[in-house]
Write a structure and sequence with these properties.
Elements (H helix, E strand, L loop, with lengths): L1 H20 L11 H9 L1 H21 L4 H6 L3 H14 L1 H21 L9 H6 L9 H4 L7 E9 L6 E7 L6 E7 L13 H9 L3 E5 L11 H20 L1 E11 L1 H11 L13 E5 L5 H6 L9 H9 L7 H6 L13 E6 L7 H13 L4 E6 L13 H18 L7
């Protein structure tokens, strides 16, 4: 009985509070970063868990109510207070969903027009998520319908190293616009299987999703990665028709390091490899923008050692290799007539700070380009690793609308 009335409530309260604290406390070390990323995204689960812990603590208090001194002096208030604090913390992201969604909706209409959905075919609109956030989806997950997946298609062998792509398509035969996916991982890790839930989801929405590989640092330094992306695009241009890919309707999408590669591939004025397809849209999830500025102003705390990552990628500091930092910064290539760009950043990002995404947004708009900046105030870097999480539900809702507008609407860019 003592365990049931104090030990178990205390354990549940402590666990719920510990996990919920990471919604507000930034991870100081790389090993703790998954807690900082995941806690806000599973906040509905934490709400339920903290609520259950609170109910159990109240029940235990009732069992001990015969002796008031045992409640007050025996520590039985501790589980109650802990569970209440955990519940309050776990409600923080959910309390901000409405305001964040309103801001995102305004950003979309300001950049694309109030009627931007109108030119999108009704059949495409019918496949999109009907609501920005669905509470129950946090528990049951997002439905991933069957699709065709072809893995390990080798598109290049630089220095004898095979580079492969994965191809995700709808079950029905046909010709589809393409989303070229470039994974993140600090330019040092990752594969075409990274964030595969998104690739599978978008394939069933009527897209051919092509997830490509590239060589990693420190063995290979920039611009090797950019050359690999260009090789993949040239291969897609040559072989896309056989896959049912409409190479005149291609969007580049990247996360973190992959977003940096995607942006340069879309923005750089001249491709070093001929016959690469034209890009109609760019989706940048929390990507580095100005690598020199990022080196000079790292986040605090800095769990991945930003300066160390950049030096590994580029071979030195900005003082040692200034030209490479300039060449590897998407901000370098901003000019007029660039593809429409969707920028999605996390407000509490301690890897790539959201202010750099805002900087790129201002630059793109000042040059006369269509650009949308969406910020998720409670989210940490790589928030979409939890596919059914609170942040990714919002991001997915607007990302699929942007891509449908860019790749399916007949009046795109007019």
């Amino acid at each position: 009985m003592p365990y049931l009335t104090f030990g178990m409530p205390l354990l549940l309260s402590a666990l719920g509070l510990f996990l919920s604290l990471w919604i507000l406390v930034p991870a100081p070390l790389r090993i703790l970063l998954p807690l900082g990323v995941g806690a806000p995204e599973v906040s509905p689960w934490l709400c339920a868990g903290n609520g259950l812990a609170l109910a159990i603590a109240l029940w235990a208090r009732v069992l001990q109510s015969s002796t008031a001194s045992r409640i007050i002096h025996g520590g039985h208030w501790v589980p109650l207070v802990g569970s209440l604090l955990g519940l309050g913390l776990s409600l923080v992201p959910l309390s901000q969903v409405g305001a964040a969604n309103a801001q995102m909706a305004r950003a979309m209409t300001q950049a694309l027009g109030a009627d931007y959905l109108t030119p999108i075919p009704a059949a495409v609109q019918a496949t999109m998520r009907p609501q920005p956030f669905v509470w129950v989806d946090s528990f049951r997950g997002l439905t991933l319908a069957p699709g065709r997946i072809d893995r390990g298609i080798v598109f290049a062998r630089p220095q004898g190293i095979p580079l492969a792509l994965n191809l995700y398509r709808p079950l029905a035969p046909g010709t589809y616009p393409a989303i070229v996916m470039i994974y993140g991982g600090a330019w040092q890790s990752g594969s075409p299987e990274s964030n595969e839930a998104f690739s599978r989801y978008m394939a069933t929405q009527g897209y051919a999703v092509i997830a490509i590989a590239y060589r990693h640092a420190p063995q290979f330094r920039y611009p090797i990665q950019q050359q690999d992306v260009q090789s993949a695009l040239a291969y897609i241009q040559t072989h896309g028709a056989a896959w049912g890919v409409d190479t005149s309707r291609i969007a580049l999408m990247g996360r973190s390091a992959g977003a940096q590669l995607a942006a340069i591939a879309a923005y750089a004025p001249d491709s070093p490899i001929p016959n690469t397809p034209s890009v109609r849209a760019v989706v940048n999830y929390y990507g580095p923008v100005d690598l020199t500025a990022g080196y000079a102003d790292p986040p605090f705390p800095d769990p991945i050692d930003t300066r160390g990552v950049l030096e590994t990628f580029l071979g030195g500091s900005p003082q040692a290799v200034p030209d490479l930092y300039h060449q590897a910064s998407p901000a370098t290539y901003v000019r007029s007539n660039l593809p429409p760009t969707l920028l999605v950043y996390a407000g509490r990002d301690h890897v790539v700070q959201a202010k750099f995404g805002r900087q790129l947004h201002r630059q793109l708009q000042a040059a006369g380009n269509q650009a949308i900046f969406l910020e998720i105030p409670w989210a940490e870097h790589a928030f979409d690793a939890v596919f059914n999480g609170v942040s990714n539900q919002l991001a997915l809702y607007y990302t699929e609308r942007f891509l449908a507008w860019a790749l399916y609407a007949e009046t795109t860019g007019e």
